[in-house]
Each structure stands twice: as structure tokens, then as C-alpha cells.
Amino acid sequence: MALSKSEKRNRIHLRIRKTISGTAERPRLCVFRSNKEIYAQIIDDLSGKTLGAASSRDKGIVAGSNKSETAKLVGKAIAEQAVKSGVESVIFDRGGYLYHGRVKQLAEGAREGGLKF
């Protein structure tokens, strides 16, 4: 029996997480994408702390004309939080999603905001 879309994504995500881990110097930028919203977190896996989070549901983020533009705004917002807390470089965790569309726009927005990865 074939895997469903979500089961396939979870397998890919677990495979990625075996190799990617965030540290205090270089935390992990984790992305979650639902059908309507997009969420990003900066996580230090060694201490188990979330250093910052942004989503398309935040009050400060005005939704763009489409979901891709909104994702870019979320990327810029998470980059602002990271730079404010002293983080310049992160490891990008695409969460099992293809690096395309909204995930790519979020990454480009984070790079424009000053993050390096």
C-alpha cells in the first residue's frame, strides 16, 4: 500500500533530522507549512530552547497579495528576531517539504533579513 502525502513528508523529515541539529552558535531554522499559513522557528536543539518564532498569523505581519509573498514577510520577520537575539547563521530545516514555492520564498526573505545559510 502506498504512503499518503503526509506519511511521505514525515519520512523525509525524519531522514533530514537525523543529520541536521541546531546548536547555540548555529541554531536550526525550522519551517512548517499548512494549506493556509506558514510558520518558522529558530531552535537550539542542544538546550531544547526556541529562540524565536514567526508565522503568517502574527499581528505584525500583514498578509501579502498571495501566500508566497506572505511567506517572504515571515522570513524577514524571523530574520529580524534572530539578528536581534545575536544569531547571524542558521541551519535551514525545510521540514520535509520541497524547496520550492512558499518554503523557498521564506528562505529568501530570511536571507534578505540578514541570516546566512
From TrEMBL:
One of its GO terms (cellular component) is cytosolic large ribosomal subunit. The keyword Transport does not apply. Keywords: Ribonucleoprotein, Ribosomal protein, RNA-binding, rRNA-binding. The keyword Calcium does not apply. Belongs to the universal ribosomal protein uL18 family. This is one of the proteins that bind and probably mediate the attachment of the 5S RNA into the large ribosomal subunit, where it forms part of the central protuberance. This is Large ribosomal subunit protein uL18. It comes from Dokdonia pacifica. The lineage of its organism: Bacteria, Pseudomonadati, Bacteroidota, Flavobacteriia, Flavobacteriales.
